[in-house]
Amino acid sequence: MKLEVKRVEKTLPEEFKVYFWDVELCDLNIEKHKRFIIERILNFGDHRALKWVLSNYDEATIKEVVQNSRNLTPKTARFWQYYFKLSEEEMRCFIKH
Known about the structure:
By secondary structure, the protein is mainly α. It is built from four helices and no strands.
């Protein structure tokens, strides 16, 4: 299954404030802060928030975040690991230091 991307919005919807409790939404740039935004929504977002991510970022970008993030919860990391068919070795969050 391919993720379909249509860049629709330039800013985060106000209703997503609940996921960004520690920052002002108006200070987030969806391009400049894409890693932070994707991580937060993958970890804490509901169905609508996930749809927003999938419509504003391409599959390669989301996969890159999943592979390189150390901030994904174990449950979130496992879901996306299976979705993208990644090994633990391909994901930074599973590498112990």
